[in-house]
Amino acid sequence: MKYISTRGQAPALDFEDVLLTGLAPDGGLYVPEKLPSFSLTEIRSWRDLPYDELAYRVLKPFVAGFIEDDEFRTMLHDTYAAFGHKAVAPVRQLDHNEYVLELFHGPTLAFKDFALQLLGRLLDHALEKRGEKAVIMGATSGDTGSAAIEGCRRCANIDIFILHPHQRVSEVQRRQMTTVLSDNIHNIAVEGNFDDCQRMVKESFRDQSFLRGERRLVAVNSINWARIMAQIVYYFYCALNLGGPERRMAFSVPTGNFGDIFAGYLALKMGLPISQLIVATNRNDVLHRILSQNQYEARPLSHTLSPSMDIVVSSNFERLLFDLYDRDGESIAQLMDNMNQGAVTLDEARMAEARKVFDSCSVDDETTCNTIRTVFEESGYLLDPHTAIGVHAARQVRRHPDQPMITLGTAHPVKFAEAVEKAGMTYPQLPHHLQDLMTREERCTVLPDDRIKVQSFMADQIFGPG
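Structure (tokenized):
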């Protein structure tokens, strides 16, 4: 399988090169030249498969030629054997035809583990094969960083630099990153917001001269295709556990960067019967405004009780636009340039096409807390604030009450004490493997929102000062 850039000016690459490249040299994002397609008969035959074997069936076409089948099977088994629930992605029922897909049983208690525990193994395989070393540079609004660190901390060929907005992630999220004291792990608290961190990462990928030509920069954010790829699997797994493919399903997805819900869109394109995908977001509602009003305008970032969605530039939306604009890279390059300049209105016919499957909803902090409290009173089930936004959005814009509505449970509530306590709920205990998290030693460097200073710090850590 070959991968092409959404902006049309970069050469097509195979999976290994896409894995190690991240952002395309023309500034675009890589997508498959052609998606695999599965028949309903084939999907039905997967109904009784455990998660790791289902992942093998769904993902095999994407990695063809990169890794031997048996080795890939073993890699997937090892990845998901480390999760804290034997079902890996269990489904919890809230009401008639209303469910939460629990995606927080990985080592760092967030859905990012599904992709990043696999990504670390894929990167190590590729680098070992090539005899190379690489530098991971990633931006996080809370969960990506800890999942990337956990997934890659044992990789012998990788140095990891994770940027997070200083004092803008929860304490549990921060400590999950800063208490990993391995020599190859470097946490940087940037005196700015998530979008400042993400901008710095993108600029560094475009100009890697600070690495002196001796290392390559590798992405762990969802600009890396492997992140999106791995997330497709749990849509299939959930649907098969709730009567699919005979029944159509609807999914509500808490999302700020559009990566997790784009994986659901890909599952639909690959043959899974999905009737509706709901973009559930907080006050940082650029995705809601695009889908509901056809209005793109980056507004100042608001800090909310759902910090993992405190994002105003949604990178992965470009991948959907590429499909909506008939995979015309030149049009996408011009459109993205216009978006960077200011407010943009998209082609209405193309947005109408998107609305055939996508709906959206923006949820404020008060409603988030009310939803946490209401769901607990109804079912005794405690939601984290991001999942609460997904549940509220599902109840607001659901199209088909006779079909299963699944909200993606993106994180464990223990990661978000402020939201849980503001909702009037008792803060849950940390899981056993994190019981001593609050007393572990931390290591972190606070740096200004200055790309040159951040790159200089990175070079000093890799090559030594001077």
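The chain has a mean pLDDT of 95. Residues 112-130 form the longest helix (19 residues).
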